[in-house]
Amino acid sequence: MRSKLIAATLVAACSMFSSGAFAAACNATAGTVAVGTVAGDLCAATDQLVQTCGDTTTIGNARDAIYQVQLGAANTATFSVTGTGFTPYVALMNGPACNSLNSCQVEDIGTAGTPLVINPSDNLPAGNYYLFITEASGSAACGAISLTTTPVLPVSLQKFSVE
Amino acid sequence: MRKILLICALAATAASADTTLVAESVRAPDSYQFERTSTSLTVTNAGKEVVSITKVLPLRPTDRVVAFPARIAAGESVKIDVEIDATNDVGTSIHTFHVQTKNAADDVAARVAIHVQTALDNGRPIVDFGSVSGTAANPAQALFELKSGDIPGLLVEEILETPSFTKASIEPGKRSVRLTLDKVSYYGIHRANLKLKLNSDVQKQAWSEIVADVRGDVVPAANPFPLDLVLADKPNEYLLVLRHQGKSEFVVGTPSFERIKGKATVEPCAAQSDDCKQVRFSIAKDNSRGRLTGAMIIPQGKGQLPIKVDLFGVMLKDDSAIIKVDGDKVLAQAAQTGTEEAKGKQPFAAQLKGALDTRDKTVNLPEPPGKGPLLRWQAEKHLNVHGYAIYRASSEQGPYERLTRDVIAQVTPEEGGSVNYSWRDDSAVSGKQYWYYIGAVLANGNKQKISPPMPVTAK
Predict the structure, then answer these.
(1) In terms of C-beta density within 10 A (0-12 exposed, 13-18 middle, 19 or more buried), how is residue B97 classed?
(2) Which one of A130, B168, B294, B348 is most buried, by most CB atoms within 10 A?
(3) B128 CB neighbour count, 10 Å cutoff
(4) A94 and B313 in contact by Cβ < 8 A?
(5) Domain B363-457, CATH among 2.60.40.10, 3.30.70.3400, 3.40.50.12780, 3.40.50.300
(6) Which helix (H) or strand (E) holds A28?
(7) Interface contacts (A, B; CB < 8 Å)
(8) Is residue B380 less than 8 Å (CB to CB) from chain A?
(9) CATH annotation of B126-215
(10) pTM for the complete prediction?
(11) What ipTM was reported for this prediction?
(12) What digits encode the pLDDT tens for the residues B56-101?
């Protein structure tokens, strides 16, 4: 019980302070992140990429974090990426579903600290997919990353009326 | 206050990255396919010296830069006017502009996000011939059908562009296009867009991708061939088996590559069978890093068309930064979190936080004034939803028509909260009965019917 209370206190403290003395304590709670969330650090990555979706020009010295998501069976999933300390540009750039003329470019830009959701086509075929995360303007700004992969549930309404 | 926050953010970014120019990402208003959208990029000079802009380059050839200033003073923010071409987009997509400066180290990428809608039911229509013979007496046929729940009277007026490997004709009724396989210059996957002129002002054109795997007597074991992860410091060797099934002579020359650098040789299969050869090939380390797409061309004997094998993969310097995610496991875990049992297994802190927070987190959006039928709906935040659309018919069976050209944007409530939306039909005729349903416009461009139809007689 005591350890649970300590964990609760840490969560509260982490939500109030995002850096400094609390950083180590926040890291200690990494095991309690939402199920399905994978942590990463853009600062630990290097500049890997030249070509993204249709881009063929090297821009700046942005670091590139690369997540290889392995799907053993066809699935419909969303990828939610939160970048802290940098503006994330995220692209799902390759995989069996990305081999068409028009449907590979699943990419978006977000805001630092806010989840950015990438929605690929429905029913991704089985295979390896590559999710690239970099700083949107091509600068070397970086920070922590969390990637949450979520199955897509049918969209439903709680209430609907016409009068 | 917002300005101060922006300045703080820019300063923090500049300080942490030692960057002079900072480009603010822009979200352009929603658009329909084949529309062009004008918007402005904001670039700030966070350095102490004047920066000279030499060129602003759109990374998509059909985007356009309208105007940009030649200089940005220290601390100054400037606008760069651009035009986005959303022709082939659907759902959320990004258009990138490369801001080039006198000192290349100051170059910056400015990106525009845009959500592009389509009037068609399928955001990414594909007509796939499947595997077809390139030598058959009767050429293969396929049908593109125009389906639109948004515009019931949508028709094809004209074929604007036909893939080079097909002939196309509009069918009677103007709701479909018949495609007949034509002569090809190689065996392999053929892909091109069929472009059509429509009879609607909402969306004037439409496209569908046409795909055909045209085969001769020699068939590769995989086409397209997945290279998967290609690391520059590894040998990156692959084997592709070729099977011969026809009566022609089985002659295969040394393969070459298109858009990918590599080397290939042809050798007998390990089983030493007369109908089998294999291509041993490797991907060169000096390919551009990132998305890797290209083809391997395998020449055949005299009078035979070459075979083209599409190659796709991702090339990186090394595997130091790759984080592997078992997607199946993660998705299964995430699916479990929705159950009551799983909620009981949530971390104590999350359970405690949920139990203590008894506030009503419902967001009530203002109801539109007027007298027409008022639609009300309540929804939680859905990650894959961009917004909502209203559909109406004069009978339950339809045909339904979309009334809201623009999406009713999804509003994000606090975690655990929901949103009360409303929309009023000012075009309804008093005394007439209508049926309405709500549709969801998804972030990936697809659409879903998410409510049953409901009747009402307009007051």
Answers:
(1) buried
(2) A130
(3) 12
(4) yes
(5) 2.60.40.10
(6) helix A22-28
(7) 295
(8) yes
(9) 2.60.40.60
(10) 0.81
(11) 0.78
(12) 999 888 999 999 999 999 999 999 999 999 888 889 888 989 999 9
